[in-house]
Amino acid sequence: MSPTVTGFEVHDIRFPTSEQLDGSDAMNPDPDYSAAYVVIRADDGSEGHGLCFTIGRGNEIAAAAIRALRPAVLRHPAPTTPAALAALHHRLTHDSQLRWLGPEKGVTHMAAGAVINAAWDLAARHAGLPVWEFLARMAPEELVAQVDFRYLTDVLTRDEALAILRAAEPGRAERAARLRAQGYPAYTTSPGWLGYSDEKLVRLAKEAVAGGFGQIKLKVGGDLDDDVRRMRLARAAVGPTVRIAVDANQRWDVADAVRWMTALAPYRPHWIEEPTSPDDILGHAAVRRGQPVKVATGEHVANRVVFKQLLQAGAVDFVQIDAARVAGVNENLAILLLAAKYGVPVCPHAGGVGLCELVQHLAMFDYVAVSGSWEDRVIEYVDHLHEHFTDPAVVTRGRYLAPRAPGFSARLLPESIAAHRFPEGPVWQARRAAEESRGGIAP
Amino acid sequence: MSPTVTGFEVHDIRFPTSEQLDGSDAMNPDPDYSAAYVVIRADDGSEGHGLCFTIGRGNEIAAAAIRALRPAVLRHPAPTTPAALAALHHRLTHDSQLRWLGPEKGVTHMAAGAVINAAWDLAARHAGLPVWEFLARMAPEELVAQVDFRYLTDVLTRDEALAILRAAEPGRAERAARLRAQGYPAYTTSPGWLGYSDEKLVRLAKEAVAGGFGQIKLKVGGDLDDDVRRMRLARAAVGPTVRIAVDANQRWDVADAVRWMTALAPYRPHWIEEPTSPDDILGHAAVRRGQPVKVATGEHVANRVVFKQLLQAGAVDFVQIDAARVAGVNENLAILLLAAKYGVPVCPHAGGVGLCELVQHLAMFDYVAVSGSWEDRVIEYVDHLHEHFTDPAVVTRGRYLAPRAPGFSARLLPESIAAHRFPEGPVWQARRAAEESRGGIAP
């Protein structure tokens, strides 16, 4: 008998990060990093954990959206095989009534992603492998069976995807060994939050270089004069060869982006990230044509259909997948294949709650079994909140070490869940008590 | 003293429409038409009602998303003036933490639309005018102040929008008088649901023509042979001059759409609606180039940024706004202005719960004060569920009569709310009891 799912729990977990201005950028001044967190349990004792990352208010909507998926999971076969994983992905993304709420975008799609990622966590643990290796051991036929090719076939058919995966088969073992030995290149955003002082920026930028990072990132888009000064300071701090990416977090219209980046260009930014709306494919293409800095986007791109068009339109130089925005591993597999078809490097978005932990597996799998390259590829690293995970991402000398523990690495410690439950956990009770004693209003 | 909002109520309302296969199409076989319904109350006795339309499961997520907006409304000035309406729209769409859940798409954006539409209902009732007339009496400067031009300025600036509205000012009174006298052209989807028999299709198509409709619509996309037969029957039933639009509800990839529409083209479909994913701007452009039938889309288009690109890319011949998918009147005003700039007719999507009631106001306002034309324009009409509204849309001889009652026309009767509350209302209790007596499982 194959195991059956018998448990489905959802938790609203929030961290009061706005107290430190960690994570502050031009669009998000005061995030409280949060997770709508799901645990699925099978009757053989297997468990899978997954999450939606949000920045505070509205995390309860994401939790409600996950709960709506319960009937598609509970009492179904536990996702321990490639076939069961593909079937679960299909059930979670093809319910016509829930699809109406997107389709394939926003909270309901993120919720599907959380549950799908929990299923891959369960499957990989069941196999005793980290997710990157579980994926990298699957046959090309099993991998393409995970992908929903609907709306992709004008650009990528199942047969083309199969050809990409087969072409990367020969070197898999060698690349996996190299990955285990050397780790995967990382960059750090820790110096560049908009809420930080110049002094803190310079100090953290120097520490990043001393710590072995070959790339850092600055948030921009608040004020042009400030950004020119911060970029100048950062360039002086890191020297001429370290890459400095900049990130506008969707702050601009096309003309603003062109003007701003033309002004920053003398300091040689490596890329401009999210110059404008993540929905604006033609806008990104115009920004790319209109100024000299390479264009990156993806953390807020809703689904594979928008990624397809960003590539079709020549709108991006780097594809920034996010582990938890789209429909989990399955849809990210489609996006990795699209990027491979166009030869565009995938440089994942991370940070938040558990995003580093999750997305490292996808980048490593891409290296081993899809693109076959880590040239010009780098995973974002932000040193926040890792202490809350049982298998935190480990970055040393500017590289992510390949995870060896089974699963998807994004399992929160039970005591972290208990402490940060919203609104009833002790962290939030204490914060409300402190606010009330100051006469203010807590969230 | 200006009035203040002191009440904010949310209801989960569902109608068991799946019992009749009303509303069945290639993607949505069994919808239970539903509304996450919001009422805002001010301390001067004013009320505004608004809704998210959904098709059943997940309506509770939309209700949760509306509840998350409560702090942006409660204890703020009641939206009785253009300035208060603009400020409310800004608060509802610029909360950085909630924005993360879209941005500007999916359930959270639909929820903002419900609340914004409730605010316009309140404002228009306060002024004693139907919404179309309330809008049509606003100065061009007041109207552009309602629009969020972020991400639009590469295509439409505030000054260009102002010029469009000023150019339409001279004929406003004359067009409003003509509208009151003649009504606005409608088309009917009632004959064409995919779940209906050939006999029912033919009978309802003939009834539609006899009832004065110059256009009908058929759902397609299930099976090509069936669709060719149904299209042939419909063309024979309505004669050569009545327009027959077809609607695939996102069923196809680009090549499918081209093949299917090439086969249907001999029967002269007026447009192909939603041939593929609503996110696929470049896909719609390819469908438009690849076959002879005009292309329409919009009911699932997430926001003004995607509409902008559909127009930029020459992807659509008709823009199908939906009253309740985007951020309410304010964002639809942006979309009407974009369509006017490109000279593309707006033919609204309607049906569902209250969508006819709401969207008629926007099309009429477009005619009076934006495009200044009803040439090639037509509002969808579906004869379902109107009996539940206090001021239902009225269509006679194929035309929507201009509403005369103050407000937005989408106020549900108190007894309809009470009967259809999910899961506790008597309609759902009775359905569960019936299912249980048959041994089945109710939703």
In words, what does this structure look like?
The structure is a homodimer of 443-residue chains. Chain A is an alpha/beta fold. Chain A contains 17 helices and twelve strands. In chain A, the strands form two sheets. In chain A, strands 4, 5, 6, 7, 8, 9, 10, 11 and 12 form a nine-stranded mixed beta sheet that branches. A three-stranded antiparallel beta sheet of chain A has the order 1-2-3. In chain A, strand 4, helix 9 (198-210) and strand 5 form a beta-alpha-beta unit. In chain A, helix 13 (304-312) packs parallel to helix 14. The radius of gyration of chain A is 21 Å and the shape is globular. The relative contact order of chain A is 0.14.
Summarize the structure.
The structure is a homodimer of 443-residue chains. The first copy, chain A, has 443 residues and is α/β, with parallel strands linked by helices. In chain A, 42% of the residues lie in helices and 14% in strands.
Separation, N- and C-terminal Cα atoms of chain A = 48 Å
Class per helix and strand makeup of chain A: alpha/beta
Number of β-strand runs of chain A: 12
CATH fold-level assignment of the domain at 172-412 in chain A: TIM Barrel
What amount of the residues of chain A lies in strands? 5-15%
| CATH homologous superfamily annotation of the domain at 172-412 in chain A | Enolase-like C-terminal domain
Q: What is the average per-residue confidence, as pLDDT of chain A, rounded to a whole number?
A: 96
Helix content of chain A: 40-55%
Radius of gyration of chain A: 21 Å
CATH architecture of the domain at 172-412 in chain A: Alpha-Beta Barrel
